Structures are given as C-alpha cells and as structure tokens.
Amino acid sequence: MIDLHTHSTCSDGTDPPEAIPELAAKAGCRAVALTDHDNLSGLAAARARADELGLQFVNGCEVSCLFKDRSAHVLCYFVDEDEGPLQDELARLRADRVKRNKLLVDKLRNEFGMQITYDEVVAEAAREESVGRPHFAALLVRHGAAESMQDAFDKWLGAGKPAYIPKARVAPEQVARLARASGGVAVLAHPYSLQLGDGALAAAVGELAEAGFSGIEAEYGRYTPDERAELRTLAQRAGLVATGGSDYHGTVKHDLSVGVGQGDLRVPDSMLEDLAARRPSPN
Ligand code: AMP
Ligand code: ZN
Ligand code: FE
Ligand code: FE
To answer: Which residues contact 162 (CB under 8 A, 6 or more apart)?
Structure first.
C-alpha cells in the first residue's frame, strides 16, 4: 500500500515534512509522496527520512488550477527539485499567494472590523509562503468570528463568500507541460471537486488526457467505494492511470490519516508503478 497525496507544514499541513514518511511507515505504506501546495521545499527533508526508514519516496506538489472557470487541483509527481520551468511557475504562485494573504488581512480588518494582523496569520504557519486559507480559518475561530474551521469557510473564506479573494491559477494543460518539462507527470486531484456531472466529467478527463495528463486520483481519502470505482472506470476509459492518496493535512483535516485515509483507504503499489511508467523519457 502507498499514499500519493499528503501535506506538511511546507503548505497547510500541521506536521513537519519528515513526519510524513514516519506516519506512512507506521501505517504500513511501502511508498509515500509529499504534495504540498505550490512548493517543493519539504521534499529533501521528507526524502532523507524516508531513506532512513527504507520507504520509497516520490517528489510531488499540488497546484491550484482553473479549468473552464472551475477550480481544479493538479498533482505533479517525480518532478526535479532543481531549477526548472515548473519551479519558476511555483515561485510566481507563491508570490501571488503572499499578496492574496495580505489583501485578505486588509479585507478582514477594514471591511469586517476583525482585529487580525498579518503577523498573527504568519505565526499560524511554519513560513510566510505556507500560509493558506486553513490558517485564516483557524484564526477566525480563535477570534470568535466562526464556530469551526468549516464554519469559517462557509461564512467567510469559501469561494463566493464575503471574504473570498481569488489567487492566481494556472491552466491544467500548462501544469502538465511544466511537470513533463521537469521530468514529471500530472494527475488530476480529487476529480469530483470540479463539480461536473458524469458526462461532463468524463469529457473533462478525456480533454486532460489529450493535454498530457497521466492520471486521475481515484482512491481518495474522502471518497466512497462507489465513487472510487467510478473514477477507476473513468481513468481506464481515458487511458489514464488511477492513482490515490489520503490528502493528509494533520490536525486541520482530523478525519484523514496517512495511508488509510478515513480508515478504509488502501492504495495499491501497482498504481505507482503504472504512474512511473508514464514519466517522460530523458533525452
Ligand atoms: P488556499 O490555497 O490558501 O486558497 O487554500 C485552499 C485550501 O483551503 C484547500 O486546500 C482546502 O484545504 C481549503 N478549502 C478551500 N475551500 C474550502 C471549503 N469550502 N471548505 C473547507 N475547506 C476549504
Ligand atoms: Zn491543503
Ligand atoms: Fe487539493
Ligand atoms: Fe491536497
């Protein structure tokens, strides 16, 4: 069993990157990927720990995309950590994230009278570049503006809510190009987030396959067995690899554990082998 979708303090997870392989080994995983939002900075520490534990480690990241006006998350795997076109794009996204976060603090203060400071938000995260809306959500709860993290998204931070400020997003086709140019592959994360009906989702998956995607995430921590089966079928029809992972975030998504998700997740090793076979050949 493996886990190809996890987050650390290098984005909005609550465990340091080196803890991810430890949790994966405890859960009985043979391989694990770290897929922080917009950055690769946790990979070195996570890989070093995975090596010590005898676990296969896969470089990854998760990029927020816009696909026909819809939010789509794209997972990249096997990417080079060194400089490259994907790295450049990630740097641009991180800069825009920081800008969005500052605007969001201004909005919460000036329009909604909340006594939140930028320093306070940054203190929630390990680093300024790691700050995401979940950190804001935690702060809103602490300031009494929301009852729970989910309530903070429902009342304030979610798309279309009063304090929503969009950040830069890339086209998925572009991410696939950049991932491949960096030696990696692209996979559509949690496909039901696109909120498309069955036919439209199948068409979208077909288009992504044409655009150079290698897989879609089917075995996802929060999906039901029926949903996972449906997505495996979609992947197969489009000639794509069905991948899987928990989307572990530590205590901010307390229902999800590394490897087993909500308890019933078992991502087979073969998914990683099939995905690795799609890597671009070096030339
Ligand atoms: P950011 O990248 O900073 O915009 O934050 C995105 C993260 O916020 C996602 O990865 C989710 O973990 C979380 N998130 C976004 N929208 C919602 C929502 N409506 N409800 C709960 N969590 C959400
Ligand atoms: Zn996240
Ligand atoms: Fe995601
Ligand atoms: Fe994720």
So the answer is: 111, 112, 155, 156
The CA 247 to ligand 2 mean position distance, Å, reads 8
Ligand at minimal distance from the CA of 12 is 2
For residue range 77-95, what is the model confidence (pLDDT) as tens digits? 999 998 889 999 999 999 9
Name the residue of 153, 193, 195 whose CB sits within 8 Å of the most ligand 1 atoms, as the mutation to test its pocket. 153
Number of C-alpha atoms within 13 angstroms, CB side, residue 51?
7
Query: How is residue 282 annotated by DSSP?
Result: P
Q: What is the pLDDT of residue 186?
A: 98
Please give the residue range of the domain that contains residue 107: 94-157
Confidence band, pLDDT 50/70/90 cuts, at residue 6: very high
Contact (Cβ atoms closer than 8 angstroms) between residue 177 and residue 171:
no
Looking at residue 126, which CATH number applies to its domain? Answer: 1.10.150.650
Give the Cα separation of 167 and 94 in Å (integer): 10
Give yes or no: residues 262 and 183 share one domain. yes
